[in-house]
Design goal:
233 residues; alpha+beta; Jelly Rolls; 2 domains; 6-stranded antiparallel beta sheet; 3-stranded antiparallel beta sheet; globular
């Protein structure tokens, strides 16, 4: 059963916690306008994110940015938890530098969108506290949920960094470094900068070079600008 908090101003999803017993809601390609964290356990399952496919086993945490295309499928029984939160609910731009989520859990073209959970009990305890707080609907609920979410994300960053020590980066060349900087720049300047030339100037590369890198890794062209969306609506 899903526990959902809706933004009263626009009617959109602000925060969601759900226990699931199958992958029906993930078995088709989808893009959401909020962050998604999936704690998933199964003997074998397939994760598709962007243009990459991953064969996974056991308890994994999958971290997805707003609008990032993904799909999960398996022929085996699966269960886990889904946590969604909108960037506005979490005040992403205020907290992301404090806990290093960007470039570690989310929007990281050098790494993987998942990692094997080493300390499950800690996350399950936090999920239990979040669930109880959502049932209360009492004063300062937003502040309490954001506090729990920050602790959750901090622990996720710690475990992801530890996991990354034993993993070869997905990309390791200079071009992928430029791509990561492009994503970071779009996150910071999407409301002011719109054309490929604007971002090429920020990154100190030619428009042609930047277009080639984007096409190589994202299979996109720069003709009408980049379609990497910002983290907030």
């Amino acid at each position: 059963m899903a526990q959902i908090i809706v933004d009263k101003q626009n009617g959109e999803l602000a925060f969601r916690l759900e226990r699931f017993e199958n992958l029906n809601q993930f078995d088709h390609l989808q893009r959401k306008n909020y962050y998604s964290i999936i704690l998933l356990n199964a003997s074998n399952y397939k994760l598709s994110v962007d243009l990459s496919n991953y064969e996974l086993q056991g308890y994994q945490m999958i971290c997805l940015s707003p609008y990032q295309p993904f799909m999960i499928s398996s022929e085996e029984p699966c269960h886990g938890w889904l946590l969604n939160f909108h960037p506005v609910f979490f005040c992403t731009y205020r907290h992301q530098n404090e806990i290093e989520t960007e470039g570690v859990l989310f929007n990281n073209f050098h790494g993987l969108p998942h990692f094997k959970i080493s300390e499950k009990a800690l996350f399950f305890n936090l999920i239990d506290q979040i669930s109880k707080e959502m049932d209360r609907d009492s004063i300062a609920q937003h502040e309490v949920l954001v506090a729990f979410l920050k602790v959750f994300l901090i622990e996720a960053v710690r475990q992801k960094k530890q996991s990354n020590k034993d993993i070869v980066p997905k990309f390791s060349d200079d071009q992928s470094e430029i791509l990561q900087n492009l994503v970071d720049s779009i996150e910071k300047n999407y409301s002011e900068l719109h054309s490929p030339k604007d971002y090429a100037d920020v990154l100190c590369v030619s428009t042609k070079t930047l277009a080639g890198i984007v096409k190589k890794y994202l299979q996109q062209t720069a003709k009408n600008g980049y379609s990497i969306p910002p983290s907030a609506d």
